[in-house]
Amino acid sequence: MSHLQRCPPVKRTGECHYRQMYFDGSESRGTLAKETILFDTEDDGIESVSNVEFGCAHEIIVGFNVGTGLLGLAYGKFSILKQFSNKFSLCFETFSDDQSSGHSFLALGDGARTTGQSTSLFMRYGHYHVDVERISIDGRTINIPNQLTPIGNTIIDTGTSMLNLAEESYSEFKTHIDSLLDGHLNSFMDGHLVCYNGTIQHELPQLPTVTLTFYKGASLELDPTSLFHQLEDEYFCLSVMMSPKIDLSIIGTNALQSYNIGFDLDNETIYFDKISCDYLD
């Protein structure tokens, strides 16, 4: 999610160039522009909105998932959300090729779905923060150091692909994962990723489920298809990394698969509803 600052026009051309960086190393560079954008409405109509400010990217560098662009949904001046409404929802279908129906979608304004379990949403420095109180692996709770659990210790960032855990939490997490899989799967490093020989589908019965529990009791459950990704035909990797921010964890889109996430900025509340996006189409 982006929080783009206004930039001065470049002399002679009058163009305004931008550079937006994300926590996982993704980056977008290009020219700030205005255009008329067409949106589908709930009654199967089309609504035209003029003078929408957006970044026309000349270069996109992605940290993990390859895409055609990056959509900023923070509350900064140039966010597409800020130009329309303080309420939106995102539904993420399962990303794996054999299960995905391709029906992930974004709803803005009155069409946003804000149902399910909820927790407090804190907006700080252009980012959406939540408070994770507990992380459990197959029901076994791992330690989150006290100094890493102030209000708003975790960022929800759809510009980031994977779950990034604060340093000490990640160390505890990896130790528990290793102990669960030890003797079953051989691990190795592929860059910064912890990987295992084999396929997710074949190893599915041995792979754990992880639950993030938030303030007020809402929870986000990561099943094996959200916790691991098939990087190559012969091996798969853990979709969890150490956060680049020592005292902050970051929840990326892989962890949000099979959920509708509703943001109500006016009431500072976020909703988690485990559901197939097909039912919302």
If you had to describe this structure to a student in words, what would you say it looks like?
With 281 residues, this protein is mainly β. It has a domain at 88-280: Cathepsin D, subunit A, domain 1. It has helices at 167-181, 200-203, 224-227; strands spanning 16-21, 27-40, 46-61, 87-92, 105-108, 117-120, 122-124, 127-130, 132-137, 140-142, 154-156, 163-165, 187-190, 193-197, 210-214, 219-222, 228-232, 235-238, 240-242, 249-251, 259-264, 269-274. Belongs to the peptidase A1 family. One of its GO terms (molecular function) is aspartic-type endopeptidase activity.
Alpha-carbon distance between the termini?
24 Å
Work out the number of β strands: 22
What's the order of the H and E elements? EEEEEEEEEEEEHEEHEEHEEEEEE
What is the CATH first-level class name of the domain at 88-280?
Mainly Beta
| Corresponding CATH architecture of the domain at 88-280 | Beta Barrel
The third-level CATH topology of the domain at 88-280 is Cathepsin D, subunit A, domain 1
What is the molecular shape? globular
Keywords: Aspartyl protease, Glycoprotein, Hydrolase, Protease
Protein name: Peptidase A1 domain-containing protein
InterPro entries: Pepsin-like_plant, PEPTIDASE_A1, Peptidase_aspartic_dom_sf, Plant_Aspart_Prot_A1, TAXi_C, TAXi_N
Family: Belongs to the peptidase A1 family.
